Amino acid sequence: MKGKVMLNSLYRDMLEIPESAAKVNAMKDGMRLADQSNDAQYSYFFRRELIDDAAYDGRFSDVRDALGALGWILKKWDDGELDNFGVDPNELIDKEQWICRWITMYPDIGLPQLDNLLEDLKGRLQTAGYQLRFYYEAVMIASLLTDQSERAAEAYKEYRKGRMDRFLDCDDCIGCRYIKYLRYAGDHKAAFKEAASMAYPGYCNMNPKTAYNELVASAVENNDYDGMDIYQQRAYKMIAKDQYFLDFIGYHMQYYAHFNVNKGLELYKKHLAWLNGRNRFPLSIYDFHMGAAVLFNVLDKSKQGQSFKAVLDINFPLYNPSGIYHIEDLKRYHYEQAAVLAAQFDKRNGTDYYINKLERLYNG
Fold first, then answer.
1. For residues 292 and 249, is the Cβ–Cβ distance under 8 A?
2. Distances from the Cα of 328 to the Cαs of 76, 256, 301, 325, in angstroms?
3. CA-based, 20 to 30 A from 87: which of 174, 232, 338, 348?
4. What is the reported pTM?
5. Are the beta carbons of 248 and 279 closer than 8 angstroms?
């Protein structure tokens, strides 16, 4: 009983900690102590909080930790060891689908492991009597990020056929998924049309915030900027203070590289510190480095000067106390960082998609 009281106290104390790396560490400590005490209830409670932090909030925990925590919970649930702890099986399905979305953004997660996770999600939906729209959404997003275009196209078709059930997103979320697919399919005109039909500022917490930023990325990747000014301005305004959207900052820098390099440089100075912030997805970091490399390549060719003065993040590897930064050095650094990550993703996926995208956008 003393152990249960201690774990309860640790759990409540952890809930009071502000969102931070310290809170994640408290979750992990609680998991370890609960496991040592063979207390399934609090082992579940701490893991549940870790998954919520990673999958829903994108804050300070690593989605790979959440994947491990989810695996433990699903096994215990299947074995009937969590029946008395108020576990909602629909909530488990929801968490699994979110992790399916985010885990592809780590290049060390192999395709077989991802496929196994997706198939487990499919089985749980079928067992619970739900349609498979939620599954096809996860397959579509995972396939887009792993350069499996044919699989993504098939999943997209099935996703659009879905009917209303517990796991159907709001209209804005559905529109956002369409725009993401169309972005990767190279159909920017259709993506633009979809975004134009969405209400602004919208009623969903994440949309059209995400949709408009997907549209900016689509414009950059497809080199089609017609009518984009108002959407780009709205999109950036929506994410200007949210580190969760590190990846899209990279695309805004590229957008300005075409129209206003000085504005792009302002964004770089303002958001560089986000590389050490709460969004630690390697794919988001790749997007930021790629955007910075493109920006500095354009600046280098513009002959506006070979250096500038700024107060940059002290944790930046090229940090200079003098505040003087050379464009050539920054261009090289960010390109090399993006190229390293591109190689890791392409090795995992068995393609050359990410390095080709980097070179194509970098060379303009």
1. no
2. 54, 19, 10, 9
3. 174
4. 0.93
5. no
Please name the residue that has the structure tokens 């929801």: 94
Can you spell out the DSSP letters for 92-151? HHHHHHHHHHHHTTSTTS-HHHHHHHHHHHHHHHHHHT--SHHHHHHHHHHHHHTT-HHH
For 149, 192, 333, the CA distances from 322, given in Å and listed in that order, are 47, 44, 19
Question: In the numeric block, which tokens belong to residue 284?
Answer: 């988001």
pLDDT of the residue at 13: 93
Q: How many residues does the chain have?
A: 364
Q: What angle do CA 236, 238, 239 make, to 5 degrees?
A: 70
139-186: pLDDT as tens digits:
999 999 999 999 999 999 998 887 666 666 566 677 888 899 999 999
Q: What is the pLDDT of residue 350?
A: 97
Tokens standing for residue 102:
């985010």
Whole-angstrom distance between the N-terminal and C-terminal Cα of the chain? Answer: 66
